[in-house]
Amino acid sequence: MPEGDSIWRAAARLHAALAGRELLRSDLRVPRLATVDLTGRTTLDVTPRGKHLLARIEGGLTLHSHLRMDGAWHVFAAGEKWRGGPDYEIRAVLGTATHTAVGYRLPVLELLRTRDEDHVVGHLGPDLLGPDWDPALATARLLAAPERPLGEALLDQRNLAGIGNIYKSELCFLAQVTPWTPVGALPGSDVPRLAGAAHRLLAANKDRRRNTTGIHRPGQDLFVYGRARRPCLRCGTPVREAPQEDRPTYWCPRCQPGPTP
Fold first, then answer.
1. Which residue out of 2, 126, 135, 179 is catalytically annotated?
2. If we measure between CA atoms, which residue out of 120, 122, 125 comes closest to residue 141?
3. Counted domains in the chain
4. Which of 29, 85, 98, 224 has the most CB atoms around it within 10 Å of its CB?
5. Do both 109 and 148 map to the same domain?
6. Residues 135-162 pLDDT 10s
7. What is the pTM of this model?
8. In terms of domains, do 171 and 115 share one?
9. Residue tagged active-site, from 9, 25, 148, 247
């Protein structure tokens, strides 16, 4: 599942291609939207909200999409060949005079009134890359269930929106605890510090190749994620991997004390 920084970049690409321009092509290839025609309307903006994308269309409409594990939006110049997968995987096509945005394998695609956006994103916690970022509220929500494993709490978009499996593992490494450590077991100052670190990491990476280590050598962009059985960049101990909520999770058994599966 894409992380918040990836969604931010996708929104920026879509906004640059569509915002302020009239739609000359509209093809929504999901059954309940098959008869919808947005041609002639202008795209007002494309806004990320956590891991959700909100394309606001003239007339008080919002096209809401969520990529989950496999979805993707690609933007092509007029006349450019589409390269994002076979045609049968296309779920949405929005075209202007200069660009075409094509949504592939979108598991969530729906059209709603802009005034009703809260029906799909109102449950989210503070957006790590949004204007509503509130570290105090994010901290309070993380601490509201002190018995919950930290990795699960970080992934819960109701606590803070934008963290996926990569940042979950990396943030637990930076906190020097395993992802199965209860939130309440962290020292009092560590949870707000962790929320702040999450914000800084996503903000730093939204315009560049993702990096959490500060090391810019091949294969060393991340401390633990995807590094099972490879040496920890900090201590050399082999990194371990185990599922948490059915997602692969990585940690260093030496740098990160605490409970494990």
1. 2
2. 125
3. 2
4. 224
5. no
6. 999 999 999 999 999 999 999 999 999 9
7. 0.93
8. no
9. 247
